[in-house]
Amino acid sequence: MGRLIYSMITSLDGYTEDANGAFGWNAVEDEVHAFVNEQYADLGTYLYGRRMYETMVYWETADQEPGQPQIMIDYAKVWQAADKIVYSSTLAEVTSKRTRIERTFDPEAVRKLKESSDRDLSVDGPTLAGAAIKAGLVDEIHQLVCPVIVGGGNRFFPDGARLELELIDERRFDNGVVWLCHRPQS
């Protein structure tokens, strides 16, 4: 059975993007990126909302850009090797391989997908992850916390969700980023 992991980069005050929709403030450099590559190497499926998919589809061809650093090429290969499910009522078509559209988020279908998977799954994007958290589907929460306060924007955790969490792992990086791995307590 695969675990469903919610993983994103956040500001110290808990936002995935600032009030202008920007996330260029994140402190992902080579050490952090190599760690992320390692974390996602065995991932079987990404679950995305439309906006997150439109951001992440860059990785479909990123390895073909001239002068791309090896660490970026490595992540592109990891991303391309995984299946992707995009939950969207408005997206007309996908532009990446191994990708399908689902028009609605069905918690029972995700539960069955987890049960039938021999690899972990990732839910990315705070809106979709919020629905998965509220449905009790998320098995681990991975948060890469950047040493910056952005003051507002799109929150990492959904309003109204309450979880008791157990810290099961952590890592500090030289640039001040901290990775936290929590598991919801039963």
Describe what this molecule looks like in 3D.
- It comes from Microlunatus parietis.
- This is Dihydrofolate reductase.
- There is one protein chain.
- The protein is of the alpha/beta class.
- It has a single domain (4-184), classed as Dihydrofolate Reductase, subunit A, CATH 3.40.430.
- Helices cover 26% and strands 30% of the residues.
- It contains five helices and ten strands.
- Strands 5-4-3-6-1-7-10-9 form an eight-stranded mixed beta sheet, sandwiched between helices. Strands 2-8 form a two-stranded antiparallel sheet.
- A hairpin with a 5-residue loop joins strand 9 and strand 10.
- Helix 1 packs parallel to helix 3.
- The longest helix is centred in the middle third of the chain and has 12 residues, at 70-81.
- The model has no long low-confidence stretch (mean pLDDT 95).
CATH architecture: 3-Layer(aba) Sandwich
Q: What is the tally of helical segments?
A: 5
Beta-strand portion reads: 25-35%
Distance between the termini: 18 Å
GO molecular function: 5-amino-6-(5-phosphoribosylamino)uracil reductase activity
Domain Bacterial bifunctional deaminase-reductase C-terminal: 4-178
Pfam families: RibD_C
GO biological process, one term: riboflavin biosynthetic process
